[in-house]
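JOB MANIFEST
job_type = single_chain_structure
chain_count = 1
residues = 212
[input]
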Amino acid sequence: MTAQTLARPEQSVQLSGISWQTYETLLAEIGDRQIRLTYNRGNLEIMVPSPEHERFKEVLGRFVETLAEELDVKIEPLGSTTFKRPELSGKEPDKCFYIQNLSAVKGKKRIDMNQDPPPDLVVEIDITSRSENSLQIYADLGVPEVWIYNGVRFRINRLENGEYVECDRSLAFPSLPILEIVRFLEQAETMDYLELVKAFRNWVKSQIQQNQ
């Protein structure tokens, strides 16, 4: 087993040669603590999110909810629910949403990837350049769309033939130029949270009016 400690802004340790059973045991032991585990084919990352990570996570998640509200799209937000492909991979997304498959999981207390669909949209804040590993896991899970923001760049990734392709349109909200979200994210550390959400909502409304 080897370990590598990564530098801040997020405190992270990566381990290799970890069994699936060890990953399951750690998940059970950690419980609701503010520690995130990512397992991919024997490699385990243990991460303590930074304030920067959490700020962007909350803002981008709120943007998804605002889009759904203004476009009258029904969603089921499941936050950082743990999704697993036993013996292969497991991950807790920063934010996830059921949209097209909402009815399949509505009201469920547990999600079983052997019989339930994956979330339709996953949001990832990638401050420490973990996105390639994350995308492989989400491809294993069959997540149709992953949004990634690294503090500078915002990407929309759509699953095509088992691999993610970077796109300029969202499957969840195809009528709007979602990539323009980045200019609002750039203000997240300087602008009041609710004022930022209000500005974003006004932008969404203006885009809807232009499309009518």
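[summary]
The radius of gyration is 17 Å.
Residues 1-9 have pLDDT under 50 and may be disordered.
exit_status = 0
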